[in-house]
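Private note to self, pasted from the team thread so I don't lose it. Backbone tokens:
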């Protein structure tokens, strides 16, 4: 048959024969040349092997043209491209139609360089090489949060997902770190350029993951000495964790996509295990219809019952300082708070402020600053204010006009009980934690210029402004629990412990009023935080933050003024 193929009389027949023979791996050089083939078998086997010949380029078999039926030359046996040995097979007749059909049903394989199909990560425009000029650039900004211990030195991988292609798993690393380690420091903003061989299309998500180098995970065999030392002081502490604020991606067409995260990777600030890989979706600016839906009037307004706990620093108690805890306001040391309904009854406001004690070295009582700030804020809320940021700006301006000296952090919330929305304005290391039926719904991050130096309002030139506050609007619903406090609470009690205590108290007070449960919850949280502050060996958010900030192992709580506000929504 080979003889017929190669001695076809017409040029068209010979061209078809050469094309066919070369496509199935047979080398032909004229009428009497040696022919290469991949083996023989039944019709199904022939189709299968024809496919292998096409996709793998197997040409290790010999056949003779002296006979109309091919036979296998045992002297030329070898391995195929997958390393499998080929054995001799019986003589079989050659079926042209079967192989031609198999060939026509297959698409040709395109041979590509593996480098051409990989996404390359660079950090600066000047780093692009000439072989990368035809690639599509996706610029990615990675923002690490401002929480204590938010930074990481572990490997960070990213995969941009599009409706046409994806970049694949890419390691984010920059040459200025020696190509050895990429340090995502607390509050840092790193930029990377992903050079993809193809356009991704519409970007629908990001896969972001945190991975450990072999032998460096805490508790693993061969862990570093620092990691072992860290674990010996705190069994709950894990060396690798990362808090991501958000990612921003710029496409080759200049389109900007923002991917909010606000999540821990690996482990939380407390050391509790959390997922080390997350999938982020882009933020979509809500339309008018969505805003209307989000802020719609509820069938029945929410009801809120609250409680409060305040206690001064232990050393201040010894010197005779006392706390004041009233129905709508109170203070302890430099801490102050308020909680009240508006006159219309449609909104409920709460706020805490923590005056900076160091002003006492200059003869200034910062407690007066925090108390005035909360009193002025309470007056604005009582008078049916609707914009929380405007409330804070107005209160700060009144403190300034009254020439009250000092500085203070603050956290203020305003709940619209008719719509189920909650405005939050936070500046510094005071904060609020919202618990839902399934656990933590929201927690404000601590804003610090450096460890122990929080953002703060004040009379001095270097003070922060009300506009620097982090403002959020989130939904609240019946069954939610709101926990607000100064750093005396959140430095000594993790959000996981707070959630556990809240669950236990509400189960215990199931047959009592919501007001009683809120009061008991505030007392229990304050009591537990105070106990942790006095424990020199306790692993606390403060000790973990100090360990991260100073590269030394710390343990124990932090003695401080404490203010705890709780509210149960029903």
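Design output:
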């Amino acid at each position: 048959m080979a003889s017929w193929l190669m001695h076809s009389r017409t040029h068209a027949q010979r061209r078809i024969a050469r094309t066919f023979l070369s496509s199935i791996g047979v080398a032909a050089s004229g009428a009497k040349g040696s022919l290469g083939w991949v083996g023989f078998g039944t019709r199904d086997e022939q189709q299968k092997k024809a496919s292998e010949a096409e996709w793998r380029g197997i040409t290790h078999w010999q056949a003779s043209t002296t006979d109309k039926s091919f036979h296998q030359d045992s002297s030329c046996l070898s391995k195929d491209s997958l390393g499998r040995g080929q054995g001799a097979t019986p003589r079989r007749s050659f079926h042209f139609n079967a192989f031609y059909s198999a060939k026509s049903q297959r698409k040709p394989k395109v041979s590509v360089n593996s480098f051409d199909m990989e996404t390359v990560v660079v950090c600066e425009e000047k780093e692009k090489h000439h072989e990368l000029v035809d690639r599509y650039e996706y610029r990615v900004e990675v923002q690490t949060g401002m929480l204590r211990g938010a930074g990481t030195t572990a490997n960070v991988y990213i995969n941009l997902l599009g409706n046409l292609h994806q970049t694949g798993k890419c390691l984010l690393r920059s040459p200025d770190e020696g190509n050895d380690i990429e340090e995502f420091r607390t509050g840092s903003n790193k930029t990377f350029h992903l050079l993809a061989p193809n356009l991704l299309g519409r970007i629908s998500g990001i896969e972001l993951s945190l991975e450990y180098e072999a032998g460096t995970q805490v508790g693993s065999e061969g862990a570093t000495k620092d990691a072992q030392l860290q674990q010996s002081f705190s069994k709950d502490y894990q060396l690798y964790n990362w808090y991501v604020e958000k990612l921003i991606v710029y496409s080759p067409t200049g389109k900007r996509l923002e991917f909010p995260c606000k999540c821990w990777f690996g482990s939380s600030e407390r050391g509790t295990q959390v997922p080390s890989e997350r999938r982020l979706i882009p933020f979509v600016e809500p339309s008018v219809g969505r805003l209307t839906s989000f802020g719609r009037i509820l069938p029945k307004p929410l009801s809120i019952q609250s409680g409060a706990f305040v206690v001064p620093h232990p050393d201040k108690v010894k010197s005779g300082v006392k706390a004041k805890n009233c129905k709508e306001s109170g203070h302890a040391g430099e801490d102050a708070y308020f909680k009240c309904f508006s006159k219309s009854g449609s909104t409920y406001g709460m706020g805490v402020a923590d005056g900076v004690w160091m002003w006492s070295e200059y003869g200034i009582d910062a407690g007066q600053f925090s108390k005035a700030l909360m009193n002025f804020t309470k007056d604005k809320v009582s008078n049916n204010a609707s914009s929380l940021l405007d409330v804070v700006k107005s209160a700060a301006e009144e403190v300034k006009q009254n020439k009250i000296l000092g500085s203070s952090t603050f956290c203020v919330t305003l709940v619209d009980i008719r719509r189920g929305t909650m405005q939050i304005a936070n500046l510094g290391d005071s904060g609020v934690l919202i618990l839902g039926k399934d656990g933590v719904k929201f927690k404000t991050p601590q804003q610090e210029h450096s460890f122990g130096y929080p953002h703060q309002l004040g009379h001095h030139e270097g003070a922060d402004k009300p506009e620097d506050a982090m403002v959020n609007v989130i939904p609240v619903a019946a069954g939610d629990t709101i926990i607000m406090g100064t750093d005396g609470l959140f430095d000594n009690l993790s959000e996981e412990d707070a959630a556990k205590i809240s669950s236990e108290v509400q189960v215990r007070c199931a047959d009592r009023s919501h007001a009683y449960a809120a009061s008991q919850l505030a007392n229990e949280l304050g009591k537990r935080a105070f106990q942790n502050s006095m424990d020199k060996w306790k692993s606390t958010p403060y000790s973990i933050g100090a360990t991260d900030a100073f590269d030394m192992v710390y343990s124990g709580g932090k003695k401080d003024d404490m203010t705890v506000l709780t509210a149960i929504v029903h």
